Write the structure tokens for this entry.
Amino acid sequence: MAAASGSGTFLAPGAAPLRRSPKRSPRARVRTTPTAKGQKGVRRVVSSPGQEQFPPGSTLGKMMNLRLNKINWRVLNDAADKLEGELASQPILGLVKAETLLRGVDALEKEGRGYREYILVRSLGLKMWFTHATTRAGVSEPRARCAVGKALASPDGEFNIYRRVLAHAPLAKSGDWEGFADGLAADARAAADAVTDADLKTAKVRYDASVAAAHFAFLDAEIENAVKKIETAFEDERENKRNAFVSAVALVPWLDPGTAPLSVASEKKSVATASAHKNAVSSVISAPVSDDVESMFGKKKKKTKMPRAKGSLSNAVSPLNDASVSLEKSLSKLVKKQAEPTFPEVDAWTVGEKQATGSDAVAAAVAAALRLPTGCVFVVPTDVFASAMTFDLGEIGLNRRVVSAAAFAKESSPKEGEEKEKVVILAFDPAGAGADAAVAAAAAKAKASAASTALLTVALAPGGACDAAEGPEGAAEARAEALERAAARAGVA
């Protein structure tokens, strides 16, 4: 979604790598080259390689210092009502204006998040929300979904996601996250209605040829059934005045071209245990990386990379599940390691640059969160996930908190006589590195607090043809195995 320069710098969607001056020129000079597609007529000062920035003294230069990786939220807020002329060509400013509305300048200044880290986490969040919005809008034909994604990512388009999120931010601010989601879905629907035959013809489809509308119908039904199972269990517990543990699974069919990472269709029994599952994930990590799939949020042509050594994913992202690592440090690590932003939770779902399945898995978590009962706490794998989902507000309406597993495990238990929150713990199967330990810690904390607890597992199912009701071939086995692994993760096996 967010483009990146060769050094890993995140810019607005569609941005081109920043151009650098030749080493032979010691003097600073001014260019009129745009820093991102759609930024017409914006002047940049280029003083030396890696020192690109907006002209000192300009409005944009006062707001964002790319060289120092800083955002001046105070200046940005003062100029928020003057988004015209030079600023109107900057879609990113629609997002940052929404940010000042949602959180306030004082909180943003105190946080001190870098420009690159800010763009990364918001890119992840917007990708999550607009993938959900596209499904929520009823856009289920694969080619149409990709055409809509292209329209949402276009910096010059009227449906640009950075601009559109500003229109609905007040709803999220007021706690009406259903209204926020409906507003985004209306944008996705409008974008779909504006897609022409030529747009469809030129859209590059990121899904496997077997994927059809039935796949998304099945996925939506999976989410609905999983949440209904949780709600029913919580209702029974209240009536029987007892606390119990319930496990629910929402299957996501493999949607990308090629074979599913865990080969669930042909190796059903090989991943029946947690240890075998971990080994299967390790084998995925060493798979070769290709460049044959386009992201729903814009073309991301990459150079073919060498296979990663086994264990490299664990070394790269396991600290994200560590309570001792701050959100800002986690984001800094991701900025350095990624070109196309993805959640570490679904790294094991990604083969090369193929991210369709992982993107819809993350969007499924949003859909589930919006359907959860009032007054529960939604425990997600990492603080990056919580930040992206809630725009750092820490809640998703109806008195539903969203916290990372590490943060939840550190919270004080309710005192005698205090009302206990219902706890819903989110897990992905296959899981990201370090996630199993985080889930186990959160489940242990919920058990110690005697809270009603549910483990919601978003699990990978086989690919191929899919029945809207029954799912793809092998879905039943995939569900049973996911439930078995979920019990082991939560320590209730």
